[in-house]
Amino acid sequence: MAKKRKAEAATDDQITEHFRWSEAACGATPVPDDLRDNARRMAEALEVVRHALGDRPIVVLSWYRTPEANAACGGSPRSRHLLAEAADIRCPPLGARTIYAVCDRLQAEGAIPLGGLHAYTDRPQERQFVHIDIRGTRARW
């Protein structure tokens, strides 16, 4: 199994139909082997979100983060990004509030795992994004 995972990272195979290992990586640092199942579950949730958004491509701004990258961007020491269980996303031309509403509904319906959700709308529209994670309990901030 470890050889297969290393091969996936080396060839940048798809995690799911629309998401690649390179999108989940933290720059040049791939998702560690022990967190790959988390990244797969996150990718599966993102596939559901993508479909609910009209099959529009999702832009992943941040997924897995190393502790150093997380600290550098001011992330929480308990960030789900450290576990490859969170993604910051955009889906142009849809706004962050629309994406948030869809993700909130999908979590409430059980279509994707419960988790954290926040729309970062305190910036110019082209820089707004939504944080979504799959922690297993509902969290909003």
Largest sheet: 5 strands, mixed
Radius of gyration of CA atoms, rounded to a whole number: 14 Å
Apparent shape: globular
Separation of termini? 38 Å
Note the beta-strand portion: 5-15%
Order of helices and strands: HHHEHEHEEE
- How many β-strands, per DSSP? 5
* Spatial strand arrangement across the major sheet: 1-2-4-3-5
Determine the mean pLDDT. Answer: 93
Count of helix runs: 5
Low-confidence stretches: 1-10
Q: What structural class do the secondary elements suggest?
A: alpha+beta
In helices, the fraction of residues equals 25-40%
Care to describe what's here?
It contains five helices and five strands. β3 and β4 (129-133) form a beta hairpin. With 141 residues, it is α+β, with helices and mostly antiparallel strands. The protein is globular and about 30 Å long. Mean pLDDT is 93; it is low at 1-10. 36% of the residues lie in helices and 15% in strands.
Write a compact overview of the structure shown.
The chain contains five helices and five strands, in the order H-H-H-E-H-E-H-E-E-E. The chain is of the alpha+beta class and 141 residues long.
Keyword list:
single chain; 141 residues; alpha+beta; 5-stranded mixed beta sheet; 36% helix; globular
What are the SSEs and their pairings?
Elements (H helix, E strand, L loop, with lengths): L1 H10 L9 H4 L11 H17 L6 E4 L4 H6 L13 E5 L5 H14 L6 E5 L8 E5 L5 E2 L1
Parallel strand pairs: 3-5
Antiparallel strand pairs: 1-2, 2-4, 3-4
